[in-house]
Amino acid sequence: MNTKKDQDGEEDDISVRSNSLGFYITQGLRKLYKNQQLCDAILVAEGKNFPCHRALLASFSPYFRAMFTRPFRESWERQVVLEEMTSSILQRILDYLYTGKVLVTLDTSQDLFTAASRLVILPLQDIVGRFLADSISMDSCLGLYALAYAHNHQALLHVATRHITMNFEPLAEHESFPGLDLSTVMSIVSSDKLLVSTELTVYQAVQRWVKFQPAEHLSLLKKLMGQIRLPLLTSEEVSTVQADIIAQYGNAHLQWEQLDGEGRLLKSGGLRRGMYDDWIVSLGLFVSNMQGGVVERLKTHFLGFNLQTESWEEIPPLMYLDSSGFLSVGHKLYVSGGQRLNGSILGNLHEFNALTGQWIQLPSMSVPRREHGFLACKQKLYALGGRSGRNVLDSAESFDLAQKTWSPIASLPFPVSHFASATLKDKLYLIGGFSHTRASGLAHRGILIYDTSLNVWNQVPLAFQCYKSTAVTMDNGIFVIGGLVEESSRRETPGTVIRALISGTHKCFFLSKDGTVSQDVAIPELPILVLPPCAVQWQSRIHVLVGNTIYQWRPGELSWTRSRKSAPNTRVTFLTVVNGVTLRVPKKTIQPLLRDSSAALTAVWVADN
């Protein structure tokens, strides 16, 4: 950093332009502070006085602004005593306020973070928070989680949470775990993201915390047991817990209930992160048997790629359906509409449950659809636009997953099909597409945005045509992947657009949440052309399935990376992949528990007194 010496011989930071008003204000305040001139406030820590300026303190800190402008004693007295703050920490805070620089070390960082939070000096809190996040370790993450949780610092809390949830089992044995306060322990053990393969691990961690200080913690046991997902324990684990309860607590017992797999999930609140795997499930058309070029059977198949183990699995097929809607919610897949081999358009809705491994048929849509939008938001499924025979649709409807019923919603501003679609922050986005039949080829240069809370559609223009792309939500925006894009501004006539677009594109672009294209996010071109791309988001990466190969990309990277694993040879002949989603699939170790719908018994904690 460039520096220069002033008339007093000190080195001044000139990152602010030396002829700017900000430069003169900054340098003037530094000199006044150094020479203790015009000081109208005195901060006191550990009996040591720090003369300073009220205007500067109030400009940085809402804490001091309220103190000096409201009828507190400090508003007319010059001296402010800061209890429980060391003089060395206060010195560093004042150095930062006057110079913009601060020395952060491992020894002082947590005290400095706490002081910055207490005084509401947010820029300093963020600086120290980043330092703490960068230096996080197995030894410090529990303490940093408690610190971030107490001060509601979301960035540090996110880093510490990820560290804890990924390493919960060894951390539950760490010497600092029993020293956490109740609210911190509650927030940890209630997390869906704990990487544990069995709920017994969480129960044992809670018991260790209680037994560390039984006189204080025993009365809190019932509240903590409310966070243990007892229905996810196997019968053997229930016996272990029951024996432990009898040995440790004579005044409590387990109350038995008979539950199937869905009942266990509902009662417990769902699986922990370590109890399921994430799959990319691709919907594609496969030939079951082909001899001499003649197709004997054509079905819609589903191929699953386990992202944790990088292995491939098959999911039971459906009857042949072309141009269906396809999405997932948790551990369930949904397929809507589509066209059968004989050309008929369907309004069917099918559900695949990864717990049972079976498909069921749900109530049908009011209108048969293909090439339509199919999105999920707040436990509702939305079927939007599309085609029914030769007609392009402007109708839309929603399916309530709890009530299992369809209801109409506001119609689209005009009929449209073949668009990319995505959900972002309770809004549905339909990107590009065709506003008439594919044969007429009139492209929609724009984005339709539906507000699910207001039942209203809005329109945003798009500078180019976009057709058969795939949209992926990530980083508070929408990545539009490949498809057919035409940037020409020439006047469109029926039939010409299709010819202009037929070559497709490797290009991708990013939409902000207001629907505008952002030039600030650079996305490398796809390594290979595929229409439409099968793209999903998982762990801050976009994964694109091309044939039997997966390519991956993380924002900031310069190119796509090819996965080491390819799809295996299956009993069916692969034709094309037309869509993909991520699906939560219970690990094989827990599937027997969730699929047992006989007299499976589970438990709920009940105290006798």
Give a written overview of the molecule:
The chain is α+β, with helices and mostly antiparallel strands and 609 residues long. The chain is built from 17 helices and 35 strands. The strands form eleven sheets. It has a four-stranded antiparallel beta sheet, with no helix packed on it. A four-stranded antiparallel beta sheet has the order 10-11-12-13, with no helix packed on it. A four-stranded antiparallel beta sheet has the order 14-15-18-19, with no helix packed on it. Helix 5 packs antiparallel against helix 6 and helix 6 (122-134) packs parallel to helix 8. The radius of gyration is 30 Å and the shape is globular. Keywords: Kelch repeat, Repeat. Residues 39-106 form the BTB domain. This is Kelch-like protein 6.
Distance between the termini: 68 Å
Number of domains: 2
- CATH C-level class of the largest domain is Mainly Beta
Question: Share of helix among residues?
Answer: 25-40%
| Structural class determined from secondary elements | alpha+beta
> How does the overall form come out from the CA principal axes?
globular
| Percent of residues in beta strands | 25-35%
**What is the annotated CATH architecture of the largest domain?**
6 Propeller
In CATH terms, the superfamily of the largest domain is Kelch-type beta propeller
Strand order of the largest sheet: 9-8-7-34
Give Rg in angstroms: 30 Å
Please count the beta strands (DSSP E, at least 2 residues each).
35
Number of discrete helical segments:
17
Average pLDDT taken over every residue: 83
Classify the fold: give the CATH topology of the largest domain. Neuraminidase
Largest sheet: 4 strands, antiparallel
Query: Unreliable stretches, pLDDT < 50, 5 or more residues?
Result: 1-16, 293-297, 487-503, 571-575
InterPro entries: BACK, BTB/POZ_dom, Kelch-typ_b-propeller, Kelch_1, SKP1/BTB/POZ_sf
Keywords: Kelch repeat, Repeat
Protein name: Kelch-like protein 6
Domain BTB: 39-106
